[in-house]
Amino acid sequence: MKLLVSQRTFLYEKYNENRDCIDQRIVSWVLKLGYYPVLVPNNLLDKKNFLNLRRFIKETNPKGLILTGGEDIGKNIKRDKTELFMINEFFSKRKAVLGICRGMQILGKYFNQGLKKSKLKTSKDYKIFNNKNLKSIPKKAKCFFNYSLKNCPKKFDIIAQDEIGTIWAIENRKSKCEGWMWHPERAMKFEKTLIKRAKKLFSK
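Now predict its structure.
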């Protein structure tokens, strides 16, 4: 079984190449879930391409979608459009979606929620509170983001936040969709509770 995984893009100026890339730890984490990651290029919405993004999704027939972290929304319009298109496709087919950090932010954008400048310091651990008494939610997490959701999207519930109200995790009440602001792949050792939670999301 396969999961589609989004990527960041950067310009390698020496060769004038737009390169898609991803942290190898995400690949390892997806394999730990029991799935094979299929990396999604950010140029499949270009008119010049033979393969379009909808066909790519259909041909790979994935079980779900992981929206990964990376640059702030708005800095890479092709990536933004690619991820928004995929969210729409997966929701229309009722397939599972997990947004990680930036991935949760792009979910918020899709559901018409804006972002605000985060008051947290990056690379610092913060205590987070579990709103639903879920054992699978960590008690603390490291901040790697500059922006956070202003409000929880409609039809979603906040499942984790910190003492100043920063939204750290959300889940959709009806669809198979969650957003996490922490990076599960960056832990020295993958947390078994998060592995179990992700497996449950994609097995629905």
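The helical segments are 24-33, 53-60, 77-92, 102-110, 192-203.
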